[in-house]
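Annex B. Sample input.
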Amino acid sequence: MDAMLDASTSTEISTTIDLVDLIDPRGVECLNALRDTDWTKALARGERDVETLTLCTDDDEELIVRVEFVKNVRVRRVRVCGVRDEVKAADASAPKEIRVFVNAATPVSFENARRKKPTQTIDCVKDLDEDGFVDVDAASAFENVRTMTFFVSENVDGTARTELARLEIRGAPADEADVRELKKS
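Annex B, continued. Sample output.
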């Protein structure tokens, strides 16, 4: 488990968990995928662990995945995994850039995602560690998260479509961290 320090409040979050069980499946939207329900292939427990199940765009490289949580969370890390060459579609490649929006007031469209300033931009070629993780830049912006929107603007090889094997969000329930802080007082 990861030990993280929140610099904005100096509250240590001793462990981060996979927040998959806190995702509200009724609040997940996926735009430009082959099928609207394909988000489960990258986000849902079990399906995202099957190498041949992938989230793939239908006709171009752009993809939007909006995730809603059942309660507010504190996000510390995001994991992005492309698809191994042996199983990926011939005309698809892994995401290159992902723009992340936290608690977006309006639903994010492709036009808005291109135009609006994201909470964080992930360069999947440079920013990810060897396990596919990236730490969030500004912990304070990821403290009280109810929704996260991931906008894939381009892919690594400039192919016609983008293919994603896994999108994992790690952190802790926001109220759990608050309870620990109260116990210290």
